[in-house]
Amino acid sequence: MCEVNGEYVVIKALENGVTIIGLTRGKDTKFHHSEKLDKGEIMIAQFTEHTSAIKIRGRVELLTRHGRMSSE
Fold first, then answer.
1. Residue 53 is part of a domain; what is its CATH number?
2. Total number of domains in the chain
3. Rounded to an integer, what is the distance from CA 15 to the centroid of its chain?
4. Cα-based distances in Å from 58 to 4, 15, 27, 36, 45
5. Which residues is 62 bridged to in the sheet?
6. Is 46 within 8 Å of 7 (Cβ atoms)?
7. Mean per-residue pLDDT of the chain
8. Weakest-pLDDT range from 5-9, 16-20, 33-37, 68-72
9. Which structural domain range is residue 25 located in?
10. Which residues contact 41 (CB under 8 A, 6 or more apart)?
11. pLDDT at position 17
12. What's the pLDDT band for 50 if we cut at 50, 70, 90?
């Protein structure tokens, strides 16, 4: 079972074709998962023992425990 730390991000696509990429932990950062969202779709992502970063391409609204932001 994965150990998780409870960090979630909510990602809402503001345009079609938004790409979300999960990046691994460790000495070599690698892509391990990707998703495509279309306008209006929402994804809830969680940081785990395997996921240390999330890269987002495209216009989104992002909600985290640190606040709300949007990409340009």
1. 2.60.40.50
2. 1
3. 16
4. 27, 7, 28, 10, 16
5. 11, 69
6. yes
7. 87
8. 5-9
9. 4-70
10. 12, 13, 18
11. 97
12. confident
Predicted confidence (pLDDT) at residue 49 exceeds the cutoff of 90: no
Structure tokens at 55: 């890269």
Q: Quick check: helix, strand or coil at residue 68?
A: strand
Q: Are strands 51-57 and 18-24 parallel, antiparallel or unpaired?
A: antiparallel
Dihedral, 70, 44, 54, 64 alpha carbons, nearest 10: 50
- Give residue 3's pLDDT band: very low, low, confident or very high (50, 70, 90): low
Pick the closest to residue 58 from 44, 47, 72, 69 (CA basis). 72
Strand partners, 19: 36, 57
Length of the chain in terms of residues written: 72
